[in-house]
Amino acid sequence: MGAIQALRGTKDILPEEVGYWQLIEDKAREILAKAVYQEIRTPIFEQTDLFERGIGEATDVVGKEMYTFTSRGGDKSITLRPEGTAGVVRSFIENNLYAQGGVQRLWYTGAMFRYERPQAGRQRQFHQIGLELLGSSSPRADVEVIALATDLLQSLGLKSLKLDLNSVGNGEDRQNYREALVHYLIPYKQELDQDSQDRLTRNPLRILDSKDEKTQKIAQNAPKIIEHLGDESKRHFDTVQQLLTDLGIEYQINHCLVRGLDYYTHTAFEIKSDDLGAQATVCGGGRYDGLVAELNGPDTPAVGWAIGMERLVLLLKQLQQAPVHQPDFYLISRGKQAEAQALVLSQKLRSLNFTVELDLSGSAFGKQFKRADRSGAVACLVIGDAEAVNQTVNLKWLASGEQTAVAQTQLLSSAEKLNQKIQQLRSP
Ligand code: ATP
Ligand code: MG
Question: Which residue among 24, 70, 132, 246 sits deepest, i.e. has the most Cβ atoms within 10 Å of its Cβ?
Answer without folding.
Answer: 132
